[in-house]
């Protein structure tokens, strides 16, 4: 570290460095528009001092983040338009700043300029002229207080920050990350198909569909900010069942976009949809593969029009259909139409769901998603009471649909057994922090494994486990399955 007691030496060094810069063809650094007008001089704070950073001449690595841009601690920063860090003058040069710092607001160790507006997670904050730091009070999808309360509460699962949810409000999470409309009473009253275990039949304590049917169980796609779990979970379950029931002769990853864009009857695309309508479309119209008709991810934008349907089909006899258009993806030519038989509802008994799953493949389940589910990082999930002492706007829930692929159980320290379902989830702004140490589990009802559509970075590599046998979050109350529509002509290689 070096210090200069005199401003004259500074000016001489700067002039020499500028001359060298011209000879070497160096241009000035690119600055944010506001800095071209005033330079970095709006607020104080410890920057160079905190990092013990001072550099001679021009050193582009001698830089620190500053309010969404970059400030420098090298001598070259002192120019007509300054991009020096606020404490460069007194710390590195030992001289008063050439312009006094404006009044600012101290927040988390930084001083922010007056009248500036900044984002703190999902809330907009402003530094007022009286030095008061004021923020909106929207509940955020990533809530550090809730994460801490869950991890300290020994609920049997651990919470954390999923980076794709950072900056979203809880309301936006419910609105954009779910998307299955609760079925009408006429649909929920449909007859259940009951499966009876034969006398003496014992189901295994653990099962995973991908182990029984290797290469036939597909990872769910990421639905992003599309409230289309109705389409993603339906396509995911249909993909697995067509593959299993064709004995591996057809192994498509079916297109949720085909459903989102083309299933228009009482459906709202990325604003929500009905499971019964999705299965009707798969039975009567069919869909192509995701490679043929890939998902068009979208940002949060309720007003945006739904992409038009780019894939239609026509009947060819015996209930089969064929595409009448080329694949929207110009990289793929195979536009085969895949269909299923009518969907059927299973009984809500865990044994019946398990028997259907182990014999015929993954099933689709409806569930209620609460505010704490978005924070899930691992363990066996059950809804926690941590928000009960907070205002009502912190307690939100919405309907989601997922694919259940298996089940298992864990032994608790007290000798009791915790059962679960397994599911993959279909669904980034800051790096994820290291996950906290797993919380010890309380005694609880049994659990299951399920698949979500929020991408592989969420939960347990895109999957979650949830308590089984207790209808946790209503996950056992409405479970659907189908058969892939497979004929002898389909058993050849495609």
TrEMBL record:
GO-annotated biological processes: proteolysis
SUPFAM superfamilies for this protein: Cysteine proteinases
Start and end residues of each stretch annotated as Disordered: 431-455
Signal peptide boundaries: 1-21
Keywords of the record: Disulfide bond, Glycoprotein, Secreted, Signal
Residue stretches making up the SMB domain: 50-98
A GO cellular component entry from the record: extracellular region
Comp. bias intervals (Low complexity): 440-451
Primary location class: secreted
A GO molecular-function descriptor: cysteine-type peptidase activity
Cell compartments where the protein resides: Secreted
Lineage: superkingdom: Eukaryota
PANTHER family: CYSTEINE PROTEASE FAMILY C1-RELATED
Similarity annotation: Belongs to the peptidase C1 family.
Annotated protein name in UniProt: Tubulointerstitial nephritis antigen like 1
């Amino acid at each position: 570290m070096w210090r200069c007691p005199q401003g004259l030496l500074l000016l001489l060094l700067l002039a020499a460095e500028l001359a060298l810069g011209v000879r070497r063809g160096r241009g000035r650094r690119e600055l944010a528009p506001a800095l071209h007008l005033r330079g970095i001089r709006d607020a104080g704070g410890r920057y160079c001092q905190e990092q013990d950073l001072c550099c001679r001449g021009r050193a582009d690595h001698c830089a620190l983040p500053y309010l969404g841009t970059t400030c420098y601690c090298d001598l070259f920063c002192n120019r007509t338009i300054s991009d020096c860090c606020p404490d460069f003058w007194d710390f590195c040069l030992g001289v008063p700043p050439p312009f006094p710092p404006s009044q600012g607001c101290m927040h988390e160790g930084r001083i922010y300029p007056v009248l500036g507006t900044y984002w703190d997670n999902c809330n907009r904050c402003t530094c007022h002229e009286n030095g008061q730091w004021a923020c909106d009070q929207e509940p955020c999808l990533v809530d550090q207080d809730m994460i801490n309360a869950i991890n300290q509460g020994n609920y049997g699962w651990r919470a954390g920050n999923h980076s794709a949810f950072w900056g979203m409000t809880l309301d936006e999470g419910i609105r954009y990350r779910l998307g299955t409309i609760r079925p009408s009473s006429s649909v929920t009253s449909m007859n259940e198909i009951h499966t009876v275990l034969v006398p003496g039949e014992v189901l295994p304590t653990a099962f995973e569909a991908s182990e029984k049917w290797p290469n036939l169980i597909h990872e769910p796609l990421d639905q992003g900010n599309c409230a289309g779990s109705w389409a993603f979970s339906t396509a995911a379950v249909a993909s697995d069942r067509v593959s299993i029931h064709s004995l591996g002769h057809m192994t498509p990853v079916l297109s949720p976009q085909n459903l989102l864009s083309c299933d228009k009857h009482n459906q709202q695309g990325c604003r929500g949809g009905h499971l019964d309508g999705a299965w009707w479309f798969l039975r009567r119209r069919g869909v192509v593969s995701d490679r043929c008709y890939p998902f068009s991810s979208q940002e949060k934008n309720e007003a945006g029009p739904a992409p038009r349907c780019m894939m239609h089909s026509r009947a060819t006899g015996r209930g089969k259909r064929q595409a009448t258009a080329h694949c929207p993806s110009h990289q793929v030519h195979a536009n085969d139409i895949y269909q299923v038989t009518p969907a059927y509802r299973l009984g809500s008994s865990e044994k019946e769901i398990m028997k259907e799953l182990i014999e015929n493949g993954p099933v689709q389940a409806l569930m209620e998603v609460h505010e704490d589910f978005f924070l899930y990082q691992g363990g066996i999930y059950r809804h926690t009471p941590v928000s009960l002492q907070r205002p009502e706007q912190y307690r939100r829930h919405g309907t989601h649909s997922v694919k259940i692929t298996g089940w298992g159980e864990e032994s608790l320290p007290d000798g009791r057994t915790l059962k679960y379902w397994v599911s993959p989830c279909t669904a980034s702004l800051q790096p994820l922090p290291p996950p906290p140490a797993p919380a010890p589990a309380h005694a609880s009802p049994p659990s299951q494994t399920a698949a979500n559509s929020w991408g592989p970075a969420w939960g347990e590599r895109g999957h979650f486990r949830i308590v089984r046998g207790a209808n946790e979050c209503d996950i056992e109350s409405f479970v659907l399955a189908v058969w892939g529509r497979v004929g002898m002509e389909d058993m050849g290689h495609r």
